[in-house]
TrEMBL record:
A GO cellular-component term linked to this record: plasma membrane
Annotated protein name in UniProt: Carbon starvation protein A
Keyword set, alphabetical order: Cell membrane, Membrane, Transmembrane, Transmembrane helix
GO biological process: cellular response to starvation
Superkingdom, taxonomy of origin: Bacteria
Compartments in which it is found: Cell membrane
Residues annotated as transmembrane: 6-26, 62-80, 86-109, 130-155, 161-179, 186-204, 224-244, 256-278, 290-309, 329-354, 393-412, 432-452, 458-483, 490-510, 522-542
Annotated CstA N-terminal domain residues: 2-347, 365-507
UniProt family annotation: Belongs to the peptide transporter carbon starvation (CstA) (TC 2.A.114) family.
Length: 557
């Protein structure tokens, strides 16, 4: 099988999904109203609520949801073969992720930009809200703590990426001023910003930077983790127009250019897929494809974290309700295209099947390393770039995706603490600075609680896939209840949510047995908490749907 086939079929199907299916969902199911006054206008404060150009907002949304996960998940999941990963990414993007992301923005937009956790209290009930927000907090804790480890590892391993990654922050600050203070045209700013970012990537290989191997008893990775959280804390407090929006927007353009280069190299070099279509000879210890495929690939097919971004930051910046189709659904298409690129790089970026098998010699192998290694080979063969520059381009792509997700993730975690302060009437917790300190503190406790290297977040990472997919299913439940209350068709969200919840609960049960067999009582207990939370919230939502159906039947009678 040639990689061009995967590229053309995958991207073509996603394009049809956007032009046809998303149009149907927007007009017939969500019934978007261009005259609806969005929370960005109703509560405009210049900090969190800022009416935003849909292209800029798309950049924020796309890069916030597309962290390292749409690279890591697909590049691990191809161990079962490229066909299952390809089908789940393509169909999941069209029928699951796009509807989920756009639906979360719609639901939040129609409820004063409340997060999906707080919204659950209004739509379902206070008990479901309390349980849901615990699940949300766990997901954000995992994302922030582990993405810091991932970024620190890449900055340590690929020192040529340090200048481009940190230089992008300065570029973003300048762009924010040019757009909002100098009122410069978006096209001019976009061209200048992308040129600046790629100039930094060109400079990176000639000026590699590294932190001291040990400083004040901290390893270089631990130092990077602390610096990343200091930066994320500052970024979460700044007005969104100053850093978050322009950083995400310009990174989105740069990353799309990077994807264009990679797909262009595929067209030119036409590499063959050396990985098996269905891998019947998986390494010992590899779990079953069903249901683990559907939690291994989350971002890139459907991800609960997207619902947090959609209802946490994106809905507060929506200028017109009709913009959410482009921002939410097309944002999911962007991430799906990244996941597809990861599949191609991890299956067609190796010379032989033996080379591929040498990397995929155990479950969990591959990931970002396979994406960078395989993708760099494709770029080099197709466009003639040297390997070092190719690796820098792809590493910077991965780090910038992860970094923008971490920026947004910490801001979302701050919102969670502020919402808890509002729910339980704790005045000081409703303020931005104390809530940010609590968010950073909880992440650092997890990161450094198990040792001085800052990788403590990896302890609970085995539960990320299931917890994240549980969150996606519960978000779809909330959207479905809202649609039912409005008397609109629910099948387009109900069927995806049933599939996701069934696969997630099965995966949680399989993991529960695995943790029990290993004697890992910490993860066993945490898995049990997540499982019980899933069942309780699902029962609450099912009860609400049942009452709505009964009331509707009684009204018709």
């Amino acid at each position: 099988m040639n990689a061009i086939f995967l590229m053309v079929v995958g991207l073509g199907a996603m394009a049809l999904g956007y032009f046809l299916y998303s149009k149907f969902i927007a007009e017939k199911i969500f019934r978007l109203d261009p005259n609806f006054r969005t929370p960005a206008h109703e509560f405009e404060d210049g900090v969190d609520y800022v009416p935003t150009n849909k292209f800029v907002l798309w950049g924020h949304h796309f890069t916030s949801v597309a962290g390292a996960a749409p690279i890591v998940g697909p590049a691990i999941a191809v161990i079962w073969g490229w066909v299952p990963a390809f089908l789940w990414v393509t169909l999941g993007t069209i029928f699951f992720a796009g509807v989920h992301d756009a639906g979360a923005i719609w639901a939040s937009n129609r409820n004063k930009a409340k997060s999906v956790g707080a919204l659950t209290g209004d739509v379902v009930g206070a008990r479901a809200r309390s349980i849901f927000m615990i699940v949300i907090f766990l997901v954000l804790l995992m994302v922030n703590a582990v993405f810091a480890v991932v970024i620190a590892g890449l900055l340590t391993q690929f020192q040529t990426s340090v200048i481009p990654v940190w230089g992008a922050i300065l570029v973003a600050l300048i762009i924010g001023q040019l757009i909002y203070r100098k009122m410069m045209g978006l096209l001019t700013v976009s061209v200048v910003g992308v040129i600046a970012l790629y100039a930094l990537i060109w400079v990176g290989p000639s000026m590699p930077l590294a932190l001291p191997e040990v400083f004040l008893g901290l390893t270089d990775k631990a130092q990077w983790i602390i610096l990343l959280f200091v930066y994320a804390a500052i970024a979460s407090l700044l007005p969104v127009w100053m850093l978050l929006q322009p950083r995400d927007y310009i990174n989105g353009l740069q990353l799309f250019v990077g994807l264009g280069l990679l797909y262009g190299a595929v067209l030119i070099s036409a590499p063959d897929v050396v990985a098996p279509a269905f891998n019947s000879d998986v390494p010992e210890g590899t779990p079953s494809l069903l249901p683990l495929l559907f939690v291994t690939i989350a971002c890139g097919a459907i991800s609960g974290f997207h619902g947090l971004v959609s209802s946490g930051t994106t809905s507060k910046q929506l200028d017109k309700e009709t913009d959410l189709r482009f921002v939410g659904y097309f944002g999911a298409i962007g991430e799906g295209s990244l996941a597809l690129a990861a599949i191609i790089a991890a299956t067609a970026g190796f010379a032989t099947l033996a080379d591929w098998q040498a990397v995929y010699d155990g479950f969990g192998k591959g990931g970002v390393g396979a994406f960078v290694q395989g993708g760099a080979n494709i770029l080099s063969n197709g466009l003639g770039f040297n390997i070092e520059l190719s690796q820098t381009i792809l590493t910077v792509m991965a780090v910038l995706f992860a970094g923008t997700t971490m920026d947004t993730g910490l801001r979302l975690q701050r919102y969670i603490f502020q919402e808890w302060g509002s729910i339980y009437n704790i005045g000081w917790m409703q303020k931005a600075a104390p809530a940010t300190l609590l968010a950073v503190g909880s992440c650092l406790v997890l990161a450094f609680g198990a040792g001085g290297d800052g990788s403590g977040g990896l302890l609970i990472w085995p539960l990320f896939g299931t917890t994240n997919q549980l969150l996606a299913g519960l978000t779809l439940l909330v959207i479905t209840v809202m649609l039912a209350r409005l008397g609109r068709p629910v099948y387009y969200t109900l069927l995806p949510l049933v599939f996701v919840l069934v696969m997630t609960v099965l995966a949680l049960l399989i993991q529960l047995k695995g943790f029990y067999d290993q004697g890992n009582w910490f993860l066993f207990g945490l898995d049990l908490v997540v499982l019980v939370a899933a069942i309780l919230v699902a029962l609450e939502c099912a009860s609400t749907l049942g009452k709505l159906r009964t009331a509707k039947a009684g009204g018709q009678a």
